[in-house]
Design a protein that fits this description.
The complex is a heterodimer. Chain A has a single domain (23-154), classed as Pleckstrin-homology domain (PH domain)/Phosphotyrosine-binding domain (PTB) (PH-domain like). Chain A is 26% helix and 37% strand. Chain A is built from four helices and eight strands, in the order H-E-E-E-E-E-H-E-E-H-E-H. The radius of gyration of chain B is 19 Å and the shape is elongated. Chain B is α+β, with helices and mostly antiparallel strands. An eight-stranded mixed sheet of chain B has the order 4-3-2-1-7-6-5-8. The chains are: A alpha+beta, B alpha+beta. Chains A and B meet through helix 1, helix 3 and helix 4 of A and helix 1, strand 1, strand 5, helix 3 and strand 6 of B.
């Protein structure tokens, strides 16, 4: 019986998002781009709270893009099957998809050079981030396709 | 009931009560300010949508209210997020993985009193979706943009 209780807690814990190695649902990751000061795969948090600049804060630093320098916003998704969960927990997980959300920001830097930064967004901040960026920059998001448009509005 | 069985039942009850995945649901007549550019309003603030005012949509929360004049609204978008009932699947039956739990999001774009563009993403409880969208459309004169046909159908049914 003790084993049963223990396994119940283990399974619950496994399903908690924080227990998974993927990007946290409220986190942001710099995937890559032309920003020399940022390493690919840097994890942090993004914020649109400031009225003037979009901020990506990571351990040891901060990266900012003024909204009035942003000239391109693109959003796309990558969907994959939950193979790991299917193997570890139940094959039924194969029926569901895990989506990753990517935001590309094109902007001019302080030297008027065109730059691009690709961020992966945690699933709980996609919609809010896109809506806020549109409001702050006055630019519309370019959706990769209808599926991305649906995903961007539904999160 | 043996002591061990009692302990097991107690554990299940505690897990059920505490599991955010299970009970994080929003009340069907409530709303949550999920996020956006509204100054001084914290993300994930829970409150109630007030649709009775002729001039403005009011989101009433514990410590105050957010007022969006209908005349200042320039965009309305409605989308859904369907998730699996993972918590119930773990605790009750794996068959719950086959059912979806839907969350409903309304994004309101508007200009504030300083003529600055703002955006507010509001999650709506299932019983206030249709009235909220209808009132917004009627009073703002703007059409709601639906994420897809599924969202349009779902909003009409609520």
């Amino acid at each position: 019986m003790k084993k049963l209780i223990l396994s119940l807690f283990c399974v619950i814990f496994l399903f908690e998002s924080s227990a998974w190695a993927g990007l946290g649902s409220d986190k942001t990751m710099y995937m890559g781009g032309t920003v020399s000061s940022l390493k690919d795969g840097t994890e942090g948090s993004s914020s649109y709270k400031d009225e003037k600049v979009f901020t990506f804060t990571y351990e040891g630093g901060k990266f900012e893009v003024p909204y009035d320098q942003i000239n391109d916003l693109e959003y796309g998704q990558k969907a994959g099957r939950r193979v790991g969960v299917a193997i570890a927990v139940t094959w039924m997980a194969l029926f569901s998809k895990k989506r990753r959300h990517f935001l590309t920001i094109g902007y001019k830097d302080a030297n008027d050079k065109q730059q691009a930064a690709v961020f992966e967004l945690g699933k709980n901040i996609v919609r809010v981030t896109l809506a806020s960026l549109e409001a702050r920059t006055g630019r519309k998001i370019d959706y990769e396709d209808d599926e991305a448009r649906k995903g961007g509005r539904g999160n | 009931m043996t002591l061990m069985k009692k302990r097991f039942v107690f554990c299940v009850v505690i897990v059920l009560l505490l599991s955010s995945a299970l009970w994080a649901g929003l009340g069907s007549h409530d709303a949550i300010y999920v996020g956006g550019t509204v100054p001084d309003l914290k993300e994930k603030t829970e409150g109630k949508p007030v649709l009775t005012d002729d001039k403005a949509f009011v989101f009433k929360y514990k410590d105050g209210s957010l007022t969006i004049p209908y005349a200042q609204v320039d965009s309305l978008e409605y989308g859904q997020k369907a998730g699996r009932r993972v918590g119930l699947a773990v605790v009750v039956s794996p068959l719950f993985l086959l059912s979806h739990k839907r969350r409903h999001f309304l994004t309101v774009g508007y200009t504030d009193e300083n003529k600055k563009q703002q955006a507010a993403v509001i999650e709506l409880g299932k019983d206030v979706i249709h009235p909220t969208l209808t009132v917004f459309e009627t009073k703002s004169g703007k059409k709601v943009e639906y994420q897809d046909d599924e969202a349009r159908k779902s909003a009409a049914e609520k």
